[in-house]
Amino acid sequence: MNAPAATIAAPQIRYTVSDLLKYTTVCGVLLAAHPLTGVGAAVLLIAMALALGARVGLLAAALLMAAFLAAASADGSREFCTLLLGCSVLGWYRFERWRTDLKTSETTESPR
């Protein structure tokens, strides 16, 4: 018989209303920055933020590179703004993950 193909499943992630509001805010800020980066780069940065939220880091890195290439300008200012915004989103995501991990480690530790 035909065996089902092996697939790599992403970890199951549950989103709360607070999480959805955070991502909506991040996406709104990135879209508001489109005069600095260009519309294409802003959309790719939004996709990068959502890929980070879904914990698909390789896709997020590819989207950051694509956003950097989409922001091509003669003087290099758009590339700088795109890279700055991309690194800011990445820093925000790492801070959120650190804070979440800290909260879960505090609740799972047994008192001595």
Describe this structure in words.
- The chain is an all-alpha fold.
- It is 72% helix and 0% strand.
- It has helices spanning 17-32, 34-37, 39-53, 57-70, 77-108.
- Helix 3 packs antiparallel against helix 4.
- The longest helix is centred in the C-terminal third of the chain and has 32 residues, at 77-108.
Distinctive features:
single chain; 112 residues; 0% strand
Overall geometric form? elongated
The Cα radius of gyration reads 18 Å
Order of helices and strands: HHHHH
Question: Biggest β-sheet: count, sense, barrel?
Answer: none
User: N-to-C terminal Cα separation, in Å?
Assistant: 55 Å
SS content category: mainly alpha
Question: If you average the pLDDT, what whole number results?
Answer: 85
Q: What is the beta-strand fraction?
A: under 5%
Stretches where pLDDT falls below 50 for ≥5 residues?
none
Number of helices: 5
Strand tally, please? 0
Helix content: over 70%
